[in-house]
Sequence to fold (309 residues):
Amino acid sequence: MEWRTKNNIASYSENVLIVYFEELSNKIKSPSLWTRYSILKSTLNIKNQINIAQYPKLHALLKRKSEGYNGKKSKTFSPNEIKTFINEAPNSNYLLTKVVLIFGIMGACRRHEMHSLKCNDVSGLKTLSLVTIRDTKTKTTRKFTITGKYYDVCKKYMDLRPKICTTQNFFNNYFHGKCTVQNVGINKFCSMGKTIATYLNLPYLHPYTGHCFRRSSATILVDAGGDITTLKRHGGWKSTTVAESYIDDSIQNKINVSEKILNSIQTNQTLNTININSASTSNNFPTEAIPQLHFNNCTIHNINIDKKQ
Fold:
């Protein structure tokens, strides 16, 4: 380790590593600190049989450096923005981008998942396409369908694909209404978010990375009423925390929460009003509703009760 050589240090004690990570925290951010910690833990465990996972003070330092850190995340597209692009963008220039957007939103796809998608993974039926994602980050196969108007858009692209291709990759480049035999590169998938944002005249194009499709899909699903189980199954997440981190803090989500709270308050007020009215009605019950009793020719007998001494 260069840092040890520079400072003439030979040991790997906990105090030494605390000083090392304290200096390193002035240069890199918290996620990179944890990455460096993971690399160092594996290296020292294999080469020096030292387990730094048993250093509680070092672990506490890294957790303290993570407090209050909010990482930069990709921006998301709203349903209206997606609808506008699909309906208004000309197919002559944006058909490929439309298909990538549809796959990314409907299947919560990562860029490398779309890059490695094969023709055999897309089964075209009469009114829908069944897509199978095999090369996933979590090693779990996912499936999703494309239906309705989105199926028609994808069908136009699939019909334009060349019959003879050198590879089985599904996505081929598209120029001026024609598909070529060249595959779409993985970096081009990253730039398509900026392409859509540019067409829609959205500000701050840089945050629309290749991950914007996956985050947009998760946010739209939750805003539409999907629960955490549906979200995890949709995106193939195993961790609830990771799945929730993909949900953008959208305005629509805030509006839905506000309306639920407001409806709950108004419902309780209505119930209280009904209870009060019911109570007042029972207290003012009309005496005319009670039938009168009439006694005729009645004899009253004396009853003697002996008291016991």
User: Anything to note?
Assistant: The first helix runs from residue 2 to 6. The radius of gyration is 34 Å. The first strand starts at residue 122 and ends at 124.
